[in-house]
Structure formats: structure tokens, C-alpha cells
Specification:
The chain has 13 helices and 14 strands. It is α/β, with parallel strands linked by helices and 386 residues long. Bound molecules: pyridoxal-5'-phosphate.
Amino acid sequence: MLRRVGPHFIQTPGPSNVPGRVLEALARPTIDHRSQDFSRLALELQSGLRRVFRTEHPVIVYPSSGTGAWEAALVNCLSPGDRVLAFETGHFATLWRDLAERHGLVVDMVPGDWRHGVDPSVVEEVLTRDADHMIRAVTVVHNETSTGVTSPVEEVRAAMDRAGHPALLLVDTISSLGSMEFEHDAWRVDVAVGCSQKGLMLPPGLGFNALSPRAIEAAERSRLSRSYWDWRPILEANGDGFYPYTLPTNLLVALGVSLEMLEEEGLPRVFERHRRHAAATRAAVEAWELELWCAEPDGYSSALTAVRVPDGFDGARVTEVVLESSNIALGAGLGRLAGRVFRIGHLGYLNDAWLCGVIGGVAAGLRRAGIAVPRSGVDEALAAMQ
Ligand code: PLP
């Protein structure tokens, strides 16, 4: 029986489902990126992005994936040989470290078990020991998409303050932006890195750097080589709503629509919806008698849930069977977690009924993969959503 018919559920923790309104905007005729229409759009997007990042300061938009925006944050703020403090919270923290090292930065990576977020007391301890202030930046992945564990960014900033340390705070908000609270200015983040294909409900293709005045100053002194990623010409052109090169204009038109949708619902309600859906998903996992990968309730992610696959089973097989039997794309285990977990994305464009469909479909797939879950989890998810 052919089962991959009907809507495709893209429940990877990014890319997420793209609403029809956004798809319609993508299909509009392409506009001239040097026109007044474009400039008006770009200036409106600037204001909209500032409201989502919760900042009064500039947000740079790149035609890039999240990785490009990671690189941009580093090359604008730092110089060859600079020390960076990082935390091994999962696969993405590790990839950001590797990228930094390829640029000649010296990264002190605090080891971790991938089941816990950053411990602010360790931030304070390491920075207090660095009396000569050799560490120039602290990097934190707010929501580790590989593990479903969040890190307490506000508390990391407080720990940096207690240590009296001037390092810049660079935060990856790639899978938290638009799905969970993030306060760029109030938490005094220096660069927040984001991208389009997660909480913003867009296809991949846009990367973001939200800046602080200290980050903009750092870019004047930093010596890592950069051209395409250089904030300075972009900031100069952005004043009039332009860019130094051709942006993916259709994606920007679509971004305007996704920002409008977030504003219509209101960010607090968006975050509450994500919290409810995450709690419902965890209730289903409990009903399946499977284990959550995240080991600390304070770190539970609102954007995704990583589920441990029982010994003797392969997580990759589970994602394959769920796709074949229910047309649901789940996230597979990444890096060290390959085969050991599967990840259910519940971020972006989602409602209660859709999530119930996902939970029922995953339960059916688990059974087909030989994992005898005792209940479908749908009733438990519904109860958690009341
Ligand atoms: N950081 C996090 C937390 C991510 O989830 C991802 C991708 O999923 C990235 C960085 C890399 O982004 P991209 O694949 O868009 O380059």
C-alpha cells in the first residue's frame, strides 16, 4: 500500500513546515533589489527582525544557512589566535568550535555529556580564573537542536558579570528564535546568530546576526579576514534599506509574511504554544515508555524533543519507517547520537491537531520498527494540551 500520499509532515527540528501564506509570498514575481519597493521592504524587515530578536540594534541578514551566520559572528568580532570559551552541549556546539578552529581561534571547550546545558557556575569559574582577560568571546548554543537541551543564556550573562569579565557573548539562537523566549538586549547578548528555516517558518536560505554596540565596535578592531561577511559595508548600505549585493528577494518578501504571522499571534502566545506542544510530546514519550534524551527538566526544549531509542534498535531505522509509513520526516541522531535517538520537531507552524497526527504517526512507525510501544500517546498528549 502506498502510504507516502497526502501532506508531508516536516517534523525535523528545522526545516519546519512552511505555511501556505508564506509559500504564496515566495511565488510572487521577483522584485528589483535596487528599487524603492525593495528598500521599503528591507526597512520594514529591519524593524520586524528587531522585534523578534528583542533588540534596538541592527540585525544583519545574509543569503546563507545558519553556518554562514556562525562564521560571520566569529570573523567580525575576533582576531587570529584569540581565545574563545565554548561548551560541548552537542553536535552543533562542536561544529561551531570546529569552524572557529579553522579560522585560527583557540577554543577552550568545556566537556559535556550532551544531556545537559551550559552550567553558569562553570562560566563564572573559568572566567574568574582568566585574570588577564585572554578569553575574547563566550559561545553558547541556546537550543541544542541535536539533543533537545536548552542553555540558560540570561544566567550565563549574569555569571560573566559576576566574574567581571569583558568577553563578548555570542549566542546561537538558530532553533530557539521565534519558538522560545530570547531577549537580545535585556540579556546583553553581543551577537545572536539565527536563520530562516526554524521558528520563522521559512525555507532555508537566510542567516542573521543581531548585534550589540560592543560587537559593532569589536568589528572595527578585529583582524580575521572577511569580505562577504563583513558587517561594515552591510550596515552602511542598510541605512537606506539596501545591501551591497543581491539578496534572495523572494525569501525577504516571505520573511515579511512570516514576521506578520508571528506578530498577529503575538510572541508570548507563540512561546506558550511551543511550551504546550513540547509538554504534550513529552507526555506521549512517557506513554510510549521511552526515555527523553534531555536529562534535566530545566533544559527541556520547546522546539524539539529527542527520544532515546531502546538498546538493540537503530534510530535511523525508526526515522525511515516513520517516513515510509506516515509521511512524517523526523530528525535522526547526529554525530555521537547517530542511531541512538530520533528527534521530533514541534517548532514553527503547528497546531494541536497536527501534533496529534504526528504523535499517532510516530507511534505507528515505532511499532512497525519493532518497538512495542504500549499506547499511542495521543490521549496523553491531548490531556497535556488542555
Ligand atoms: N546551529 C544549530 C543550533 C542548528 O540547529 C543548525 C542546523 O540545524 C546549525 C547551527 C547550522 O545551520 P545550517 O544547517 O542552516 O547551516
